[in-house]
Write a structure and sequence with these properties.
Four Helix Bundle (Hemerythrin (Met), subunit A), isomerase activity, DinB/YfiT-like, 3-stranded antiparallel sheet, isomerase, mainly alpha, single chain
């Protein structure tokens, strides 16, 4: 398999989100998403915060060694914890502070490309610190890509004609989910990548057939929230 440049995957992930929200009117930006309680503008603000965090993190390198990688990083964020609920409420209030939802799109359009340029310029052998962890730069970029891909899928269910996330970015997200699954588990053969991502993150529930194929590994789901 051809190696994926982490900055290229992140660029594809962020470009994909831009393609979803660009040219959308305020009514579309107020449509519901797969994230409970969040409209499109709210969710875009959440991803915008990730892009802003990327700019700060990549400009603040630290010494290694890493204490987490692109998979183990996610184990510190169990689905549905109290911190997630507080963050969800903060995002809703912060997004509502914009005069119009389109203001979030404009800020995203300025910030996301800057984060991608910073990712391309970062030392791939370097380390950064974020969310209480030290990660290698490529692993940090993979965490951003995985989150962007999942939220791309969250943005689109009520947006007709929205494009899917790009294949390089999806491959990174799927690799993350594979890593979070138990070593003995194999995802059901009938799942395509999108179904895997939606079920691995609890967006779509497992069916009885899924549970039969997964066996004991079904208890690991959702792999992240």
């Amino acid at each position: 398999m051809t190696a994926i440049r982490p900055d290229e995957a992140l660029a594809q992930a962020y470009d994909g989100i831009t393609a979803v929200v660009a040219e959308r009117d305020d009514a579309d930006l107020l449509r519901p998403t797969r994230c409970r309680g969040w409209v499109v503008a709210d969710l875009l603000f959440h991803v915008l915060c990730d892009a802003q965090r990327a700019l700060v993190t990549l400009a603040s390198p630290v010494d290694g060694p890493a204490d987490a990688d692109d998979v183990s990083y996610w184990r510190g964020f169990p689905p549905g914890d109290d911190d997630s609920a507080r963050h969800a409420w903060w995002v809703r209030r912060s997004a509502a502070a914009f005069e119009r939802p389109g203001g979030i799109v404009r800020l995203w359009a300025d910030t996301a490309p800057a984060a991608v340029r910073a990712a391309a310029a970062a030392d791939p052998a370097g380390h950064v610190t974020t969310q209480g962890h030290v990660l290698r730069v490529p692993d940090f970029l993979a965490t951003l890509t995985t989150e962007a891909v999942v939220h791309h899928l969250d943005l689109t269910p009520d947006l007709p004609g929205a494009p899917p996330p790009g294949p390089l970015a999806v491959r990174v997200a799927v690799t993350t989910m594979d890593g979070l699954l138990s070593d003995e588990a194999v995802r059901p053969t009938g799942w395509d990548d999108q179904e895997f991502l939606l079920k691995a993150t609890g967006r779509v529930p497992l069916t009885d057939r899924d549970r039969l194929e997964l066996g004991e590994s079904a208890g690991w789901f959702p792999l992240l929230g």
